[in-house]
């Protein structure tokens, strides 16, 4: 004689598939009300976070946090000048080159490609340059633009330190010769200068 279990007398629905029956277990009331409440809440959430008010969206909050983090980073190095010595020095500092890379990927890949291989703009990974004769010219092109506006100026959109660091990053791309659909453009120019090492401080006697 088979043992009767609590499930034998449990209510079932009228559904049956190949002899498999379905218990009639409705969703708990609290779950249904939670679902209704989420639907009622959603338009208020949308209006608050996506209604156009500055600083409320996740993207705006991320931008604010990123800007604050950038300010903290720049406090370590002060104000940088886009001169030869500074660019040659910072292109050999991996941590700061990564900051320049993030600026590049946020602003430059639509024209120069994700790796600098060139799209609308020229290939930055070969040895040929159109508007650059020395390392300082990289920053000048970023600051002032070039090509009659084909390369826009970024002086009004980037922090001066961001310009220096993205210039240093672009300088590191030279000679990687990433495969590109753009041929050589411009002239082959002399190598970048070697970085000048900071002289150690002499302790006071």
Could you please describe the fold and organization of this structure?
- The chain has helices at residues 29-50, 58-77, 84-90, 94-107, 109-112, 135-144, 160-173; strands spanning 12-17, 20-23, 128-129, 187-188.
- With 205 residues, it is mainly α.
- Helix 3 packs across helix 7 and helix 4 (94-107) packs across helix 7 (160-173).
- The model is unreliable at 199-205 (pLDDT under 50).
Strand order of the largest sheet: 1-2
CATH architecture of one domain: Orthogonal Bundle
The CATH superfamily label of one domain reads Cytochrome c-like domain
Major sheet description: 2 strands, antiparallel
Dominant shape: elongated
Look at the structure and give the CATH class of one domain: Mainly Alpha
Number of strands: 4
User: What's the gyration radius in Å?
Assistant: 30 Å
Number of helices: 7
Compute the separation of the termini in Å: 102 Å
Roughly what fraction of the amino acids lie in strands? 5-15%
Order of helix and strand elements from N to C terminus? EEHHHHHEHHE
* Overall average residue pLDDT: 84
Oligomeric form? single chain
CATH topological fold name of one domain: Cytochrome Bc1 Complex, Chain D, domain 2
Q: Uncertain runs with pLDDT below 50, 5 residues or more?
A: 199-205
Q: Helix proportion of residues, in percent?
A: 40-55%
Structural classification? mainly alpha
């Amino acid at each position: 004689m088979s043992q009767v279990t609590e499930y034998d007398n449990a209510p079932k629905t009228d559904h049956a598939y190949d002899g498999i029956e379905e218990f009639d277990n409705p969703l708990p009331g609290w779950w249904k009300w939670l679902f209704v409440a989420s639907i009622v809440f959603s338009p208020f959430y949308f209006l608050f976070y996506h209604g156009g008010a500055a600083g409320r969206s996740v993207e705006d909050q991320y931008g604010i946090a990123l800007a604050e983090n950038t300010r903290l980073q720049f406090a370590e190095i002060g104000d940088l000048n886009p001169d030869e010595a500074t660019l040659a020095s910072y292109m050999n500092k991996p941590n700061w080159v990564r900051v320049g890379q993030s600026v590049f990927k946020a602003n430059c890949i639509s024209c120069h490609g994700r790796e600098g291989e060139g799209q609308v703009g020229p290939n930055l990974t070969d040895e040929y340059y159109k508007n650059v004769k020395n390392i300082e010219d990289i920053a000048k092109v970023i600051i002032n633009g070039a090509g009659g506006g084909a390369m826009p100026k970024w002086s009004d959109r980037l922090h001066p330190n961001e310009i220096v660091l993205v210039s240093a990053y672009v300088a590191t791309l030279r000679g990687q010769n990433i495969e590109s659909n753009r041929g050589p453009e411009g002239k082959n120019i002399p190598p970048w200068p070697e970085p000048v090492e900071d002289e150690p401080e002499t302790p006071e006697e």
